[in-house]
From TrEMBL:
InterPro entries: Catalase (IPR018028), Catalase_AS (IPR024708), Catalase_clade2 (IPR024712), Catalase_clade2_helical (IPR043156), Catalase_core (IPR011614), Catalase_haem_BS (IPR002226), Catalase_immune_responsive (IPR010582), Catalase_large_C (IPR041399). This is Catalase. GO terms for cellular component: cytosol. There is a cross-link at residues 333-356 (3'-histidyl-3-tyrosine (His-Tyr)). It catalyses: 2 H2O2 = O2 + 2 H2O.
């Protein structure tokens, strides 16, 4: 148990243990079925304190959901740095390789409500709270390294545009509507982020299989006071993988909880979920050596120019005990930093530094939200901030001010040498001005860089996603504006394709971005691939032999693959359980499918599931005891990625590992 989990025990109540039911005042309850009435058929009495308490609590059980990132899922884990990073930072958790720092991570979608589906086309939040010995450090990032806007003052506008439209609250958890695309056409700084959002990064296969990014440029400051600019990355051990858009839409219907279930179950089974922390570091003196402004959050530092150094590993390994108490009440803030980590002047980051505490005040009901168990640091803390709603601490002493002579100035600030936080001593000078720096003006080069870096199938997915999204817009003006102001300026071929698809005007050829660099690290095709924790749905006819089932299971499970048998009903064949049917699952819920046929004919649902798996470019395996299936199927057994698993299971496994047969 890590230090934070241990600390949480103080507030953990185990109702699964034999416990007598009481009121919140601790009074034992003799009966919990009937309210207190004047006569069996009479009115309920006001004096029924048990009824009143139970109902009042229920009436007040909801708190406001987060204004963005409302739907989230949290897990515990720990982080360990590989080697001391003291040349860059004095942060204790980044300089002591023997230290295991507890973490709590909350993954989220951005636009949808708390009850929305797991795979809309959306950005994913990736927030990490490190409970360090020097206080909590929050890395509140996303699964995309850039953002839509360059200045925080535009955030309410962006969010109002992407959220359901205010007059009818349609659509839920989707950017495919007029107000969002209108915003994009009027705010072309979003061009680069739009490429990410239209790419497969926006529909991850699993929360365990996506990258994370701190987005902004931050600072690392070492003991000597020297500062480096830094970009933070999380690299998933399993690589970054996606589903396809048609599949995502089906999954959202078949299993709205697809991502959280995947994470919960994998952690529950003891499959460690691992991410490596990566740093891109440049010395402060190199601030002006890039062909963009390092303060601009719509720009990446191409990994080929500034390599990502992998400096530590985060292992997520424990589920929460109580979703509300932990995941819903956790309060992240990019301003929660520790000595050795500091901010840059990125105007988006600067605005975030205000917003996050402000939002917790309304969401968690007052200034003492840091005392909620999940938010409490694991190191000692002391100051003069007493009172306020929901004060949980009883602080001794007559004085609650500094300086004082009555209590010897306790609690006393620590000097930087003693570990006190010292803001980086940056020189700042300027006139007050509402303006954007000229150096933020280039909106299209890196959008083009991203497109240049895609494999053909990835590029096609972007074109198709744009066609879907603009096709959903009702306003012709919006479609035309996006094409003219954004798409056409990034890439002519993309403009031609989309204009044709959505019946919009093809804008006149303009000087599109001529940026010809590419960055292979941006393509998801270049991330690690693995068989571990992959899922295979094995569809069977009712007469398949027990032995065949056992052998098939064995064949896959030895590679860490999870096998589910899907039959006409839930039953046992010998010792083997057929736990799923076509009522309970679908091929979209698996990475790959296999069909095992005995004498009996394939069910129509199996044929349909296979066709959909084929369409979604999944590996398909088959094993036929008797007869033939080629006539029943809507694709050829000779097609790429369709394999007889009795003859060539290795080929099938290769295809599963490759995730999809993109060139089928
Ligand atoms: Fe957030 N963001 N954000 N954001 N954000 C919130 O804080 C905000 C931005 C991110 O799991 C809110 O506690 C502003 C960028 C994540 O609990 C709110 C701006 C990035 C989460 C807020 C941004 C993020 C939030 C809503 C523009 C990636 C979920 C609830 C200046 C680096 C945290 C809350 C969790 C949540 C404001 C832009 C990531 C309103 C004003 C850029 C992962 O405070």
């Amino acid at each position: 148990m890590n230090k934070k989990k241990e600390e949480l025990q103080k507030n953990t109540i185990d109702n699964t243990k034999k416990a007598k039911m009481t009121t919140n005042q601790g009074v034992p309850i003799s009966e919990d079925e009937f309210s207190l009435k004047a006569g069996e058929r009479g009115p309920t009495l006001m004096e029924d304190f048990h009824f009143r308490e139970k109902m009042t609590h229920f009436d007040h059980e909801r708190i406001p959901e987060r204004v963005v990132h409302a739907r989230g899922f949290g897990v515990h884990g720990e982080f360990q740095v590989y080697e001391s990073l003291e040349k860059y930072t004095k942060a204790d958790f980044l300089t002591d390789p023997s230290k295991k720092t507890p973490v709590f991570v909350r993954f989220s979608t951005v636009a949808g409500n708390r009850g929305s589906m797991d795979i809309p086309r959306d950005v994913r939040g990736f927030s990490t709270k490190f409970y360090t010995d020097e206080g909590n450090y929050d890395l509140v990032g996303n699964n995309m390294p850039v953002f839509f806007i360059q200045d925080a003052i535009k955030f309410p506008d962006l969010v109002h545009a992407v959220k359901p439209e205010p007059h009818n609250e349609i659509p839920q958890a989707a950017s495919a509507h007029d107000t969002f695309w209108d915003f994009v056409s009027q705010n072309t700084e979003s061009a680069h982020m739009i490429m990410w959002l239209m790419s497969d990064r926006a529909i991850p296969r699993s929360l365990r299989m996506m990258e994370g990014f701190g987005v902004h440029t931050f600072r690392l400051v070492n003991k000597e006071g020297k500062s480096h600019f830094v970009k933070f990355h999380w690299k998933p051990k399993l690589g970054a993988h996606q589903v396809v858009w048609d599949e995502a839409q089906l999954i959202n219907g078949k299993d709205i909880d697809f991502h959280r279930r995947d994470l919960w179950e994998n952690i529950d089974k003891g499959n460690a979920v691992e991410f490596e922390l990566g740093l891109q570091v440049i010395p402060e003196e190199d601030e002006f050596n890039m062909d963009f402004d390092v303060l601009d959050p719509t720009k990446i530092w191409p990994e080929e120019d500034v390599p990502v150094q992998l400096v530590g590993k985060m292992t997520l390994n424990q589920n929460v005990d109580d979703y509300f108490a932990e995941t819903e009440q956790v309060a992240f803030h990019p301003g929660h930093v520790v000595p050795g980590i500091d901010f840059s002047n990125d105007p988006l980051l600067q605005g975030r530094l205000f917003s996050y505490t402000d939002t917790q005040l309304i969401r968690l009901g007052g200034p003492n939200f840091h005392q909620i168990p999940i938010n409490r640091p694991v190191c000692p803390f002391a100051n003069n901030q007493r009172e306020g709603y929901n004060q949980m601490n009883i602080t001794k002493g007559q004085t609650s001010y500094h300086k004082n002579a009555l209590n010897d100035n306790q609690p006393e600030p620590a000097s930087p040498e003693e570990g006190g936080f010292e803001h980086y001593n940056e020189k700042v000078e300027g006139r007050k001005i509402r303006a954007r720096s000229e150096s933020f003006k280039d909106h299209f080069s890196q959008a083009k860089l991203f497109l240049n870096s895609m494999q053909p199938h990835e590029k096609q997915h972007i074109f198709d996603a744009l066609s879907f999204e603009l096709g959903k817009c009702k306003s012709m003006d919006v479609r035309n504006n996006v094409l003219k102001e954004v798409i056409n300026k990034i890439d002519r071929e993309m403009a031609q394709y989309v204009a044709d698809k959505v019946g919009a005007d093809l804008p006149e050829a303009v000087e599109e971005s001529t940026y010809d660099k590419s960055s292979p690290a941006l393509s998801m095709s270049n991330t690690p691939a693995s068989l571990e924790t992959r899922t295979i749905g094995v569809m069977i006819t009712p007469d398949v032999a027990e032995q065949t089932l056992k052998e098939t299971k064995e064949k896959f499970e030895k590679h860490g693959i999870e096998v589910s048998f899907i039959g006409d009903k839930i039953h046992s064949i010998g010792d083997v359980r057929v736990e799923e049917t076509f009522d309970t699952v679908h091929s979209v819920l698996f990475d790959a499918v296999v069909v095992l046929k005995g004498k009996a004919q394939l069910q129509p649902e199996a044929i349909e599931n296979l066709a959909i798996a084929f369409k979604h470019k999944k590996a398909i395996g088959y094993g036929i005891d008797e007869g033939d299936i080629s006539d029943a199927l809507q694709f050829s057994l000779e097609a790429k990625g369709v394999t007889d698993i009795e003859k060539d299971v290795d080929q099938f496994l290769e295809d599963v590992k490759a995730h999809r047969i993109w060139d089928r």
